[in-house]
Known about the structure:
With about 525 residues, this protein is mostly beta strands. It contains 1 helix and 53 strands. The termini are far apart.
Amino acid sequence: MRKLATCLGIIIHSFFLIPHLSAQSWEVYDSDFQLKSRLIYDEIQLLSETVKIGKMDGQLFLLSRDNTPAVEIEAETVFQYLAPWILVKSGDKIGAYHEYGSKSLDNEYDEIQTYFNFLLAKKGNEYIVFQRGTSKTTSLGILDWAKITHNGIILTKKDGKFFLPFSDTPEKPYDLLEENEGKYLLAKESTGFGIINPDGDYIMEPVMDQLEHTSGDFFYAFDEGQYFLIEATELIANIRYNSFHEIRKEGDLLTEFIRGKLRRVMDWEGIILDTVGMEEVNFISKGNILVKLRDEKVGLLGQKNWLVNPVSGVEKILPGTEGYFPAVVNGKMGVIDSRGNWTIQPEYEKINLLSERMAAYVDNGKTGLISIGGEILSSPKWTEVKGFEDGLAISSLNNTSYLIGNSGVEIMEDGYENILRIDADNFLIEKEGKVGMIDKNGNSLLELNYDAIQQMEDGLFLLNSDGKFGLANSEGELIFPVAYEEILIDWGTKEILMKNEYVPVVVVEPEPSKKKRNRKGA
């Protein structure tokens, strides 16, 4: 399956360097596949829908929309494109250009971090910041390290202390500045823990004995015997819940105990469930918490409400789909609905919900199909059945994959080593190292002749065989033969750029002779 998985993707590379290619002749076609022009470049790189690089005689150029050189780039290669920045490289040193063409940093840095409107560059142990709005370069000095957080805050560390060099207090040292997935920094000073906003200002003073980021902009804290659930905002940290009772945090699970007994299930904002008689609570996955009560009932709790109301005679309930949930009793699995009613009796080794009101059951190590209402659709004969979409699923048996319908019947007799769904109507197939394409009825669209087939936009497919490329449509018709060194699609200009070695044979019909014929008897 790995080979098929690598076939899918978009041909426009937006991050890593596109490999160097050596051909010099390119053909440019419009969206109707009509030849527009020919180009002479050693290499063309599409970094985005608006950014295009050409290389000619070892020199890099930023190209205009009509593919003519617009800006000369002083570098040997493009290292990375991190919009809107083009990082370039000469030798082992890095420089930077803005995608509009202005040069920002010379090729003299060991490392460059990027953000939308500035760059953080390292040369040896010295760090500098380039700000695009002013074209100003500022040295941060010799540091242990510096970094840009995901929301554009520059953090530095020197001699074991942390700093915010672009805040109102750039020289103020902190014992800890910690980034998280949210917008706000966790900070620590000698007085305790606090929270800092993107401007570098405290929205909660450093007074907490304990502070931990939980999720998004939420934090869990403890101070002077009191527990807090806190939401950070631009101006202030709001206490969403506080209690002198013990709030335990175990991974992503929050629970509150009153006089040593489990009483409440929490999320980062407050109480989800408050009930007497809870015996055990287990976090299964985000939005799925298994609750066991002292009366031996078991329920599945969602983010705000019960997904499955507490029910007797069930040992475990698993995350479900479409209002149905796999459940376990006496080591056997079945399916229940949100009220706890069995729709598939607990008779199977394993149940996997497949969508479209279908499920796969396992018996004696083999997998069969069953409807969500309990109707057996096929005997257990497959190794695996994947999810249904538009009435079709992919099954496998003895390292062979098949397309099956929701009746459990194979769409075609012959299987393939791998089948991969690429859209509602088409599937990639692989056999003996070659890749092809079939439709939802199992009919061949592209024969098993290719090393890779890559899905593009607008119903196009890039074909690769023996290092040559061609282009086909979703009906399997060849638009361009597999004879080109490279094919790029510029979605910004709706052009197809083809590195040309294929020279089609053009038959020119002779024009009718304009010479008058002599009439008989004239």
